[in-house]
Structure formats: C-alpha cells, structure tokens
Specification:
The protein has 279 residues and is of the alpha/beta class. It is 43% helix and 13% strand. An 8-stranded parallel barrel has the order 1-2-3-4-5-6-7-8, surrounded by 6 helices. Helix 2 packs across helix 4, helix 5 packs across helix 6 and helix 6 runs parallel beside helix 8.
C-alpha cells in the first residue's frame, strides 16, 4: 500500500524518524523500495547527478516528468515527491497549477516539492486546496544558488534565523505537509522542528529534524566528492570501474565471450547456409 502524506505526520507524533532518499531511475527506485525507505524524492538534483549540469537551474519540467515516470514504475509503497524545477511555480498561479498537475498526472508523483517561504505561500495554498500535496524547502535552496553566493550554511544571523522560522510557519499555515531544512544550524533546525506540527526533513541540518534526506549518489559513492553533511555507505564508483576494466581487458584479450556465453546454430542450418550459392 502506498504511504500517504498523513502517515509522515503520524510518524512525527510518534517520534519515529522518517527516511528519505533521492532516486532518478527505475533500477534505483526498485532498490529504495526494497529498503523500505518512506519517501523517494525525484530531485532536480538530477541536473547535477544525471544530466551533468553544474546546478539544478537548467533542469526542465519535461526532465522531471521523464525521471519521475521511471521511478513511479518501480515504486509501489514509498511516497514519491517530485521537485518543481526553476521557474515552474514562481510564475502565475495558473501556470504553477498546470505544471504541478503534470508531475502528478503524467509523472506519477503523489506530491511536489518547491523552494522558498512567504513568496510561494499563495501557490502552496492553491495547490493544496486543489488536492496536490506540497513539501516545502527552506535554508539552502539550490535554485537560488547564484543569489545566495554559493552552497553554504544559511540563517546564521538573528534576522536570517527569525525569517526562516517565520517562513516555516507560513509554509505550514499554507498547507505544506512537510518542510525540508537544508544547510541550517542544527539548533535552529531544532527550534523549527519543535514549533511545527508538520515534519521537518533535514539535510545538513543536524539530527533534531523529524527525518533525513540524502542524495543517493552521495551515499553510494557515485559522486567525485561527498558533501560534509553526507556519509558514504559504499564505493560504487570503484566497483563499477573495476567491472568495466575487467570487461574491456577480456574483450581485448579475446577471453570474452567464450563458448559458455555463446549460442549455437543448428548444424544442418549452418550446412545449408554454406551450400547456398546465392549467399
């Protein structure tokens, strides 16, 4: 049975940590599902991890729909949340509704995520009124990386921290079912978590949040370097590279394929082909 957004609030009330991870394709989503992780985020981080961009900004709505479809085909129980990419929700209400609707209807997501506080409150309110669940995202918001001056810890000053707390409360009042807190001081994340009735999901925000999310490439060792807030649980780069080197060397040495990997044609068919003068 598919996990619903209401279950996350129940987990917060029960004091149970919420596990979240990104996934961008069918095979990874199958593995995430098997690991019983509650939330799969089809993040616009696929711009960096899959498409080779240096930020999330070039990612399009069609990119997100394409990858969300692949994840949705694999996942039967995790809650699938799809990121709304840059300039797909901070435009008109009508266009925001249409874009979010495509991620749900075409992509197969059960919810969308968008970045920002007060400026996107009206969009969140309208989306949730029409039955589209919304996850918020505060702190380091990658779509605003140029304005922020880079990927760095946010809300360090009194005014910045106060604004973040107020924005979190606004997101809750607007109907968001959860909020991601990225790259904010852990004590600030604790304050926000205690003040909200909806779950907080941390990434680089300490261990006081109601759950955690990581980019799957970082924890599996696909990335060239892991962020400070991440932990590498495997070195898949080394495993894959070793396999590729082994394959390439065996092909060059004539060791692959062997008779074991080959299939055979019936001897009579082969004789007939050899005897056919038209060939």
């Amino acid at each position: 049975m598919r996990l619903r957004t209401t279950a996350l609030k129940e987990m917060k009330l029960a004091g149970n940590q919420i596990t979240c991870i990104t996934a961008y394709d069918y095979q990874m989503a199958l593995l995430v599902e098997e690991a019983s992780i509650e939330v799969i985020l089809v993040g616009d981080s696929l711009g960096n991890t899959v498409l080779g961009y240096d930020s999330t900004i070039p990612v399009t709505l069609n990119d997100m729909i394409h990858h969300t479809k692949a994840v949705a085909r694999a996942s039967k129980s995790s809650l699938i949340v799809a990121d709304m990419p840059f300039l797909t929700y901070n435009v008109t209400i009508e266009e925001s509704l249409r874009n979010a609707g495509r991620l749900i209807q075409e992509g197969g997501a059960q919810a969308v995520k968008l970045e920002g506080g007060k400026p996107v409150a009206n969009v969140i309110r309208k989306l949730t009124e029409l039955g589209i669940p919304v996850m918020g995202h505060l702190g380091l918001t990658p779509q605003s990386v140029h304005q922020m001056g880079g990927y760095m810890v946010q809300a360090r000053t009194f005014d910045q921290a106060k604004n973040l707390i107020e924005d979190a409360q606004i997101l809750q009042e607007s109907g968001a079912f959860a909020v991601v807190l990225e790259a904010v001081p852990s004590e600030l994340a604790k304050l926000v978590t205690e003040r909200l009735s909806i779950p907080t999901i941390g990434i680089g925000a300490g261990n006081y949040c109601d759950g955690q999310i990581q980019v799957i490439n970082d924890i599996l060792g696909f990335s060239s370097h892991s962020p400070r807030h991440s932990k590498q649980y495997a070195d898949i780069n080394a495993v894959v590279l070793n396999a590729l080197n082994g394959y390439a060397q065996e092909v060059r040495d004539g060791k692959f394929p062997t008779s074991k990997e080959s299939s055979y044609i019936d001897s009579q068919v082969l004789n007939d082909l050899l005897a056919d003068k038209d060939l």
